[in-house]
Write a structure and sequence with these properties.
This protein is α+β, with helices and mostly antiparallel strands. It folds into 2 domains: 41 residues; 50 residues, Irregular (HU Protein, Chain A), CATH 4.10.520. It contains 3 helices and 5 strands, in the order ααβββββα.
Length: 92
């Protein structure tokens, strides 16, 4: 499911039938932007769904698959998501 399909599902839900799709998409975009910006400073936990965090990766040596030559991969900060208990149970 992509973002537009998610907006369609929300709009089709009986509790949100009075909302316009453009309003739903706007709220979804703003929610995602807030989560992205907040994770830079602190973890974002949505109880039952999961936790968005950032994690640091150490610098390491890698290998170019085409040439086999060793290359240095720089340290970086990466996003992480840990699913919550309810989300895991739903997927199983």
């Amino acid at each position: 499911m992509n973002k537009s399909e998610l907006v369609e599902k929300i709009a089709a839900h009986k509790n949100h039938s009075e909302l316009k799709k453009c309003d739903i998409e706007s709220v979804l975009n703003e929610t995602l932007a807030i989560i992205k910006n907040s994770v830079k400073k602190q973890d974002v936990t949505l109880v039952g769904f999961g936790t968005f965090t950032k994690s640091k990766r150490k610098a390491r040596m890698g290998r170019n698959p085409q040439t086999g030559k060793e290359i240095k991969i720089a340290a970086r900060t990466v996003p992480r998501f840990k699913p919550g208990k309810d989300f895991k149970a739903t997927v199983r």
